[in-house]
Amino acid sequence: MNTELLLQLTVNGLIVGLLYGVIAMCFVLIYKSTQVVNFAQGEFLLIGAWVCWATLVWLDLPFYIGFLLTLGFMTVFGIIIQAVFLRPMIGEPIISVIMVTIGLSMFFQSLMKWIFGVSAESYPQVFETSTITIAGLNIELAYILSLIFSVVMMVGFYWFFRYSRLGLAMRATAFDQQVASSLGISVSKVFAASWAISAMVSATAGIVIGMVNGVSDALSFIGIKVFPAVILGGLDSIVGGVVGGVIIGVLENLAEFIDSQYLHIGNLYTIAPFYILLIILTIKPYGLFGTKNIERI
Amino acid sequence: MGMKPLLEVKQIDLAFGGVKALTDVSFTVNKGDVYSIIGPNGAGKTSMLNCISGRYQPQQGSISFKQQEITRMKPNQRSSLGLGRTFQNLALFSHMSVLENILVGRHHLLKNNFASGPLYWFSGAQKEELEHRRTVEEIIDFLEIAHIRKKQTGTLSYGLRKRVELARAIALKPDMILLDEPMAGMNQEEKEDMARYILDLNEEWGMTVVMIEHDMSVVMGISNRVMVLDFGSKIAEGLPEEVIDNEHVRRAYLGEEDDLLEAAV
Questions:
Q1: Closest by CA position to A248, among listed A260, A258, A240
Q2: Which of B55, B96, B107 sits opposite A178 (nearest CB)?
Q3: Following CA atoms B68, B71, B75, B81 in sequence, which dihedral angle do they give, to the nearest 10 degrees?
Q4: Domain assignments of chain B as residue spans, ordered by start
Q5: For chain B, which has fewer Cβ within 10 Å, the N-terminal or C-terminal residue?
Q6: To probe the interface with B, which of A182, A237, A294 has the most B CB atoms within 10 Å?
Q7: Residues of B with CB below 8 A from A183's CB?
Q8: Distance between terminal CA atoms of chain B?
């Protein structure tokens, strides 16, 4: 057995998994506070990565300015999407809302292709790209960066929901919009804020992945990959999203290991997460951490 | 009296499609009142409360609170003006502790935000926090829920949850509180406790109370004005003893034919 490869893939899996976890958190954030299952989450990554790329390559700005501009853009973008497309859908059947987000996903994917072309572009060198060796493992510096980013985001989210007023307002709104508004919380502000935060954090994840793999359509596919992570963890649990993300990331890479070493099926990597999803949902229909709907009679 | 009323409801009409929930309802509540709204099921009591708290928008009529027109205001704006409420069905944040539930009620009164909060000792956040904690402690003492402050509300008994819900609503320090069936589903002892809390709120904390209640002994015992709704119309208003003697009220409750109502339809 090739232990070195196994270890390498496990570490990769953990790092990518944490990144999935961050995106899953963004997904859950929107679902929890606005009850929208956002199938256009992957496009947030895509748009964020392209916008940042454009500021660096077309406008030739330094990275930190381009990055801040992108964050600003995504905030406005998230709020506009919510206000224009999803606010009118409040009270409509969930399936209609899902159709809207799928529509948005298709639209933005095509729009990005139209503006930026279909071929993958790589980011200009922002950091000295090199691989560092830790305990015999080659780890790309960008991966370390992404690891730091993920951990910071998770701690940030925890702190935000636990200690900030807006975070508390969001938790209250997630539970019951009517009660929240009777306590002086502006529900429309909470909705706008959750879309803005979700768009911003997703975009950052998009940029991080873009630095490693280049910017292309593949980014929006991550939105779909995160879906099993979210369902796995429980649609309404932020912690669950993180755990689900890590599980999917590691499993994916283990599947790759088994595939390349023994089975030689090819592409087991892509399907494995969905198999696991099926198995876990058969045992725990609400996901690992999801709220069970139990009613007292 | 010459005093301006705290809440003034004028000729409210509310309909859902073809169903008229409220027809031409007017009433006023003075500061310091314990005002009860009674009536058979489906009479429009909760609809009336929802119009006041802002969940429903009436098609016609106007509502003013503290001399301010609030008919088109959002619920959260109304609560910032000093209007609190509880709900008919328990609506606590069941995954939060009792303390957290009450603190959500203090939410709009906090001035520090997530940027100044971390500067805790410098931005006055500490002082603010202490002040809020003190108010919350007062409320906890008042409602005698100190022993369950750290418990998740989902695990509490029904009567206690009702009490926590009241605590959360008064954490806003509202001038007027709307109570939707505060005693539904309680046993006699719990009802007596709740009645005492409501009276104390009114007398000691100076809160004006508007309440929907089915238990007539409670209504007669603690309210100083009563309005009766039936089929969305006001059929009587006055002192409790006046209302209970009212012929239309008896008919509404006993379900007999009523000439006055038929004329109104």
A1: A240
A2: B55
A3: 10
A4: 7-264
A5: N
A6: A182
A7: 76, 79, 84, 104-105, 107-108, 168-169, 172
A8: 34
The ipTM is 0.74
Using DSSP's 3-state secondary structure scheme, residue B7 falls into strand
What does the block give as tokens for A180?
């929240």
Bridging pattern class, strands A137-140 and A131-134: antiparallel
**How far is residue A174's CA from residue A251's CA, in Å, rounded to a whole number?**
31
The angle subtended at Cα B254 by Cα B250 and Cα B256, nearest 5°, is 95
Query: Which residues in chain B are closer than 8 Å to A164, comparing Cβ atoms?
Result: 113-114, 117
The one-letter code for the residue type at A80 is I
Enumerate residues 6+ apart whose C-beta is below 8 A from A295: none
3-state secondary structure of B37: strand
Residues A5-35: b if buried by 16+ CB within 10 A, e if exposed: eeebbbbbbbbbbbbbbbbbbbbbbbbbbbe
Distance from CA of B140 to the nearest CA of A (A): 18
Per DSSP, the three-state class of B84 is strand
SS3 call for B224: coil
Backbone angles phi, psi at B20, to 5 degrees: -85, 120
What residues are paired with A140 via a beta bridge?
A131
pLDDT level of residue B70 (50, 70, 90 thresholds): very high
Q: What is the pTM of this model?
A: 0.80
Does domain B7-264 bear CATH number 3.40.50.10260?
no
- Per-residue pLDDT tens digits for A184-194: 888 888 999 99
Residue A164, class by beta-carbon neighbours within 10 Å (0-12 exposed, 13-18 middle, 19+ buried)? middle
pLDDT band at A12 (very low <50, low <70, confident <90, very high): confident
For residue B117, CA distances in Å to A155, B110, B121 come to 16, 10, 9
- Cα A173 to Cα A159: distance, rounded to the nearest angstrom: 18
d(CA B155, CA B107): 24
Contact B93 A183 (CB under 8 A): no
Q: Which is it for the CA torsion A254, A259, A261, A263, positive or negative?
A: positive
Q: Read off the tokens for A271.
A: 């399907």
